[in-house]
Amino acid sequence: MISSQMLKGMLEGCILEIIYKQETYAYEISKLLEEYGFGKISEGTIYPIILRLQKGELVKATVRDSNSGPKRKYYRLTEKGIVSLYEFKVNWKELEHAIKSTRDMFQSFVFI
């Protein structure tokens, strides 16, 4: 299981990527994150992130009818959201490079 501290920094970018690929709703986002190996992420964790993304004008919501049950809010990225996702990916590549550069240090860790 991924620690919550590490997860917090990653989820926003991952949610932006999911929404970039297709308009979607919170429950579907939580299911996709679980499929991608993040474990069970509740909608209660996802909603505050989505609200923050909306306040930052990175995503917009559209309410639509659902085939099963009440209406759903579908989220899509704004142009500002696409820029933010790009910046997240650039930062991710820099972090990935730094981690790979210190590979020897990580290989010497003793995992229990």
TrEMBL record:
Domain of life of the native organism: Bacteria
Pfam families, per the entry: PadR (PF03551)
InterPro entries in the record: Metal_resp_DNA-bind_regulator, Tscrpt_reg_PadR_N, WH-like_DNA-bd_sf, WH_DNA-bd_sf
SUPFAM superfamilies: Winged helix' DNA-binding domain
Domain Transcription regulator PadR N-terminal: 15-83
PANTHER family cross-referenced by the UniProt entry: DNA-BINDING PROTEIN YIZB-RELATED, PADR-FAMILY TRANSCRIPTIONAL REGULATOR
Protein name: PadR family transcriptional regulator
